[in-house]
Amino acid sequence: MRFLSFQSDCSDCLVSFIIIITPLKTPLGLLLNYDRNSIAIQFMEFYNKPQYRCTKIKITFLSVSAARKPSPIRVLTELQQRSPPSLISLAGGSPNPNTFPFQSASIKVKGGEALVMDEPLMKRALQYSGSYGIPELLSWMKDLQKSLHNPPTTGYSPERGQMEMCVTTGSQEGLCKIFEMLVNSGDNVLLDAPTYSGTLAALQPLGCNLINVASDQHGMIPADLRKILERWDPADAQKPGSSVPRVLYTIPNGGNPTGASMTCERKQEVYELARKYDFLIIEDDPYYFLQFQKVSSSDLSLYSQRPWAPTFLSMDVDSRVLRTDSFSKILSSGLRIGFVTGPKPLVERVVLHIQASTMHTSTFTQVTPLTGPVHPVSLLKQQPGFLLFLRVIEFYRSQRNTMLSSADKWLKDVAEWHPPMAGMFLWIKLKGIKDTQQLIMERALEKEVLLVPGGVFHINSSDPCPYVRAAFSLSTPQQIDEAFRRLADLIKDAM
Ligand SMILES: Cc1ncc(COP(=O)(O)O)c(C=O)c1O
């Protein structure tokens, strides 16, 4: 065992930290004490364990993920980020922001106010930051997550899977890193296809065996999941080399491409099956804030009064849920802000991957929603939680209604669909058409209307699929109406 100890004396504080490196690789602990005020400001522990076990579940990380170790430099950045300005650090290799050409920024928000990134904030926005995310954004989001989902894991010990979070560059980055951590070649992975093509793009190269659980307009069908799982004995779940699926992926609200939303009962049944067969649930929920059922109160704490089905995270007594959230649909898709929430040992491992890849989500991006005319944390503070989201919901609800009216007007005789209760997509089955691929990619273009052929959302994209995905997010009511008129013509011609 090696002890590396550093001490730095400065006028305001005495900083000491000890890095303990063991040849056995576990644990690598890092301790920082500020003893000027005799307060231990920070105690961070990085586990370098090849396994995650809490309650019953045992997940053996896959070779690449298991081999990841904390990047010492990133760990120091994390500590520095949480330290008072009086800390003198000669540790990091950060460039001097005084040499950067950008000085300040002013962003006008709708409503007229300007968010001003003054010089000090700009310097921070242009600098490296910690891999978990900048503390203000992270703690804002943790509070929101607790208000919205009240996860049982909040009060657990870290080893038992206490709720932890990190910021990611969009939820896509979180998903990709979660899959890399958990899914090995040959593993059985459960999901309800059709599903988000970005998930298929991340999962398929891992060489896993994707098992399709049937779904309908209410999402994954628990009875089908039960039938699939009956192939295995739950007692085998923890046996080495067992082929029992270890991971289930689903989009619980406003599914992409189906628009399907799961009911509370279905989620409870799926969670019970996860407990029985001991698998993790990856809850990919970027459309959570685009649920169309009217919310009567903007008080986030009125959890039980919301008409929205509880999330898997809110049911997670076993620490078996990894949830991905996104700001892409409510704040900006280009800023690229997403979040991973889940058991601490798993989120830590996602962060180890971030340390070794992007290092962190753009600091500028993270600082932007926290910037304000008066004080930081402003854009989010001024329009807390629901006030911000409700406006977005109103817009998409009205767009959805517009699309449904135009569908009724033009497509009633030639297609079928279910009204989505969330999200931005209408999933349309074309009558008398076996496969929409050719129809869309060739003939639709001639008629100047474009939709996504359904096949791309299937595990085997070359299987014939009679569906198309229509997005109601971007087009005007007139464009939607005209597009469906053209689509109706197209289908009639092809029938
Ligand atoms: C179901 C689903 N998951 C994840 C993503 C990725 O979103 P983000 O912009 O947060 O990376 C999308 C994007 O459309 C999506 O539809």
TrEMBL record:
It catalyses: L-leucine + glyoxylate = 4-methyl-2-oxopentanoate + glycine; 2-oxopentanoate + L-kynurenine = L-2-aminopentanoate + kynurenate + H2O; glyoxylate + L-phenylalanine = 3-phenylpyruvate + glycine; 2-oxoadipate + L-kynurenine = L-2-aminoadipate + kynurenate + H2O. This is Kynurenine/alpha-aminoadipate aminotransferase, mitochondrial. GO terms for molecular function: 2-aminoadipate transaminase activity; glycine:2-oxoglutarate aminotransferase activity; kynurenine-glyoxylate transaminase activity; kynurenine-oxoglutarate transaminase activity; methionine-glyoxylate transaminase activity; pyridoxal phosphate binding. Pathway: Amino-acid degradation; L-lysine degradation via saccharopine pathway; glutaryl-CoA from L-lysine: step 4/6. Gene3D superfamilies: Type I PLP-dependent aspartate aminotransferase-like (Major domain). Keywords: Aminotransferase, Pyridoxal phosphate, Transferase. GO terms for biological process: alpha-amino acid metabolic process. Residues 127-487 form the Aminotransferase class I/classII large domain. GO terms for cellular component: mitochondrial matrix. Its cofactor is pyridoxal 5'-phosphate. Transaminase with broad substrate specificity. Has transaminase activity towards aminoadipate, kynurenine, methionine and glutamate. Shows activity also towards tryptophan, aspartate and hydroxykynurenine. Accepts a variety of oxo-acids as amino-group acceptors, with a preference for 2-oxoglutarate, 2-oxocaproic acid, phenylpyruvate and alpha-oxo-gamma-methiol butyric acid. Can also use glyoxylate as amino-group acceptor (in vitro). Transmembrane segments: none annotated. It is an enzyme of class 2 (transferase). Belongs to the class-I pyridoxal-phosphate-dependent aminotransferase family. The lineage of its organism: Eukaryota, Metazoa, Chordata, Craniata, Vertebrata. It comes from Sinocyclocheilus rhinocerous. Its EC number is 2.6.1.39, 2.6.1.4, 2.6.1.63, 2.6.1.7. It comes from the Eukaryota.
